[in-house]
Design goal:
By secondary structure, the protein is mostly helical. It has 30 helices and eleven strands. A seven-stranded mixed β-sheet has the order 2-1-7-9-8-11-10. A two-stranded antiparallel sheet has the order 3-6. A two-stranded antiparallel sheet has the order 4-5. Helix 2 packs across helix 3, helix 4 crosses helix 16 and helix 28 runs antiparallel to helix 29. The protein is globular, with a radius of gyration of 29 Å. It has three domains: 336 residues, no CATH class; 158 residues, no CATH class; 98 residues.
């Protein structure tokens, strides 16, 4: 079919239109989960969590530098990368659908005759309209849209790779007798190899591409021109992983896994075996050893439950805002069924048009659905099967983003099916210009645009940035703050590394203390020659600079001593001295490696650095240090003294019904009134991610508890108490999921 001419200008226009939609709904800052980590590592050329994502980091840095003259913030620049790569995928998919519909319109002389003489030039415009409809559906699917308005993950780059591979594969089929065709196939394979250094999601088209080539033109696999080029291209693509040991050797502030190597040969072995051998540190990162997923034969939940989890997320895609429930049995079901059937219809149209293309698209659809569900082997879904206990048997959050490529592809297929429905209706009409008269059928494509806008949009959402800023500003100069997980860690990295605020504070990630590399990095980063200074202008008007920085790192153990620390119990009771008090642990009390290293840091640092905890639970609770902590707004400061017998002036204990925590009332009032920011945290319309509702809940509880301590403080006024209670009510709206959220069902669980 060499006569086919791709409408590149139309494809570019479609991608540009999608990009503008994403810009309108773009996040102006960071967001929960991995967003802050990826923005920060791209900004400083750091190394994020395994597998390190070197292509994203390098591409993100280059992209950010190129956009720097615009004056946009770093966060907006990196979020625009997500929008641009998703829009690029939309452009490629426009070309894919146009090509398939062009072929469909020419299958059968009867169809061709019906296309002629109807006054609408169907043979020209039908593929363009159908491609536009398909791109609209794909781009506005909830997960695709939501992940394209903030750089939460690296997956939008992989989605662009997948779409480009599909397009290049179809071009190879059309041009396989020419050198241009071979170049298209080689380009597709190179993109898969290069994309693997962004994320292995980029490799997902490989099975379908292999079957497609075997069916359409297997001779190319034995062609000398192909063989002498394909191997070097694969090696060159995969070699981008050499970025990891090269950059790790330069000790960036964020250097997760520390994938350093002693030589080029062992690094090469690790790179080209994808972590199965070679340099140990690099191999552990590339193979994602940190997460230690079980074998596929060891299912973390029954496959039928995992499949239901996928169907739950599929149900979200086409009308998320129609029913705020996250359950698959919802008011969205009729619309979900419509788009499911339209997708099947689209696949049938591909089958009728070209069996090779059907194998490519159908094989990819199976890989991105059943294959991916089986391979990911998730636990029970975050919001599914609540009767299954304990909570650890469930995922810690909704995992719909893993299926972004699946939902984007299904939107394309559903758009083709809708085009087929439009043609079928037009053929049944006995009027002039039947296709024009049948265009109301295409309005179905606008359902996701209208229903998903509020839920997918992240415009004007500063909630995560302000949460991190507020937490970091709760810490005194040169303080240490122990965090518990992604959402009280990565946003702090963003504030420090991207916005350059309060870099003097040492953020300790409790989860990483179990690794051999992280305690060493903390020791190095807090040594006198690398300790970053406190900047007085960042004191918020409440912190004065100390006379000098701390003279020692936060942990003084040698590397060998740190390596020897393992979890264990002690036969006898044990008392650990902290200044004038002692922390007592009963016989057989278990302290794991992270707990022991935390205690070692506290003992080494509390005379020189203020010690804080991000929440009054987690590590603080496990170590039994609550009796010696004082709340400074959102954070809890460790003050090792008998607070009940000898409280300092200004310390007030909250009422029995409000936790009986100790509070530094003046510091807390100053933080709440003059330092903290709450954009996106009060009176929200929708807080889409239910797994992060603990953040607005924490603000609500802090406001309620602060109001309580003000009633017990002589320096407070009634208006201050009333203002805090009013703020608490606004936080409560968000904590329940927002004004449009599923509050009643959420409360009944």
């Amino acid at each position: 079919m060499t006569e086919y001419k791709p409408p590149f200008r139309w494809g570019f226009g479609a991608g540009l239109g999608v990009f503008l939609l994403y810009v309108l709904t773009l996040s102006p800052s960071t967001a929960m989960w991995d967003t802050s980590e990826y923005i920060a590592t791209a900004h400083i050329l750091g190394i994020p969590h395994p597998p390190g994502n070197p292509l994203f980091v390098a591409l993100g840095r280059v992209w950010s530098v190129l956009l720097a003259p615009t004056g946009l913030s770093v966060a907006v620049r990196l979020n625009l990368l997500a929008a641009a790569t998703s829009a690029a995928a939309a452009g490629f998919y426009f070309l894919v659908v146009h090509r398939l519909l062009w072929g469909f319109m020419r299958v059968g002389e009867g169809r061709k005759k019906r296309s002629e003489g109807n006054g609408f030039a169907a043979s020209v415009w039908t593929p363009l309209v159908g491609a536009g409809v398909s791109v609209l559906l794909s781009a506005t699917a909830f997960t695709v849209w939501n992940q394209s308005t903030v750089n939460e993950k690296v997956y939008t780059i992989s989605v662009a790779v997948i779409a480009a591979v599909v397009w290049l594969s179809l071009r190879w089929m059309d041009l396989r007798d020419q050198d241009r065709g071979l170049r298209c196939l080689l380009a597709a394979i190179y993109l898969i190899a290069l994309g693997s250094t962004n994320h292995l999601m980029s490799v997902l088209p490989l099975p379908a591409l292999g079957l497609f080539v075997l069916l359409v033109g297997p001779a190319v696999l034995f062609s000398r021109k192909f063989l002498i080029r394909v191997v070097p291209l694969i090696l060159i693509g995969v070699s981008f992983n050499f970025f990891l040991p090269i950059r790790a050797a330069q000790d960036p502030v964020i250097n997760e896994g520390d994938p350093t190597c002693n030589g080029v040969v062992e690094a090469a072995v690790a790179v080209f075996t994808n972590g199965q051998s070679g340099c140990e540190n690099l191999a552990l990162v590339l193979s994602r050893f940190q997460y230690q997923k079980p074998a596929l034969s060891d299912r973390q939940a029954p496959f039928e439950s995992q499949l239901l989890n996928y169907l739950q997320y599929f149900d979200w895609q086409w009308a998320r805002g129609l029913d705020p429930s996250e359950q698959p049995r919802s008011g969205r079901n009729p619309i979900t069924l419509v788009f499911f059937v339209l997708g099947l219809w689209g696949l049938w149209m591909v089958f009728k048009t070209d069996r090779g293309a059907f194998l490519l698209l159908g094989g990819l659809a199976v890989t991105l659905t059943l294959g991916l569900v089986f391979y990911l082997n998730f636990k029970y879904g975050y919001s599914l099967a609540p009767e299954i206990q304990p909570r650890e048997l469930h995922e810690v959050r909704e995992r719909d983003y893993f299926f972004i490529a699946s939902f984007g592809l299904w939107g394309i297929l559903a758009g083709m099916g809708l085009t087929g429905a439009w043609l079928r209706v037009s053929e049944s009409l006995s009027v002039a210009r039947p296709q024009l008269m049948a265009t109301p059928v295409l309005l179905v494509a606008f359902i996701p645009l209208g229903s998903n806008w509020v839920w997918a949009s992240r415009a004007d959402d500063y909630a995560t940035r302000d949460w991190a800023y507020d937490l970091l500003m709760s810490v005194e100069p040169y303080g240490i703050i122990f965090t518990n997980g992604d959402n009280d860690t990565f946003p702090l990295w963003y504030i420090q590394e991207v916005e350059g605020i309060r870099q003097d504070v040492t953020v300790v990630v409790g989860q990483y203390l179990y690794t051999p590399w992280y305690p060493r990095q903390l020791q190095e980063l807090t040594s006198p020659d690398r300790q970053r200074p406190f900047r007085p202008e960042q004191g918020g008007g409440i912190y004065e600079p100390p006379p000098e920085p701390p003279p020692e790192p936060i942990i003084t153990l040698s590397g060998q001593e740190m390596d020897q620390i393992v979890g264990g119990s002690f036969a006898e009771s044990m008392t650990i001295p902290l200044g004038p008090v002692g922390v007592q642990y009963p016989p057989n009390h278990y302290l794991d490696r992270g707990d022991q290293l935390t205690l070692a840091m506290i003992i080494a640092s509390f005379d020189e650095r203020p010690i804080y905890f991000a929440t009054p639970s987690g590590i603080l609770g496990r170590l039994g240090l609550e009796p010696w902590t004082v709340r400074h707004g959102l954070a809890a400061k460790l003050i090792p003294r008998d607070l009940t017998a000898d409280p300092e002036p200004g310390l007030i204990q909250s009422s029995p019904g409000y936790g009986e925590d100790w509070w530094d009332v003046e510091r807390t009032v100053a933080l709440l009134d003059t330092v903290y920011s709450y954009r996106g945290l009060k009176d929200r319309t929708v807080w889409a991610d239910k797994s992060t509702l603990n953040i607005p809940w924490y603000f609500y509880l802090t406001a309620v508890q602060a109001a309580d301590i003000l009633t017990r403080w002589d320096g407070a006024t009634e208006s201050q108490v009333e203002a805090l209670l009013a703020e608490a009510e606004a936080f409560l709206v968000t904590a329940r999921g927002g004004r449009l959220a599923y509050s009643d069902v959420e409360e009944s669980r």
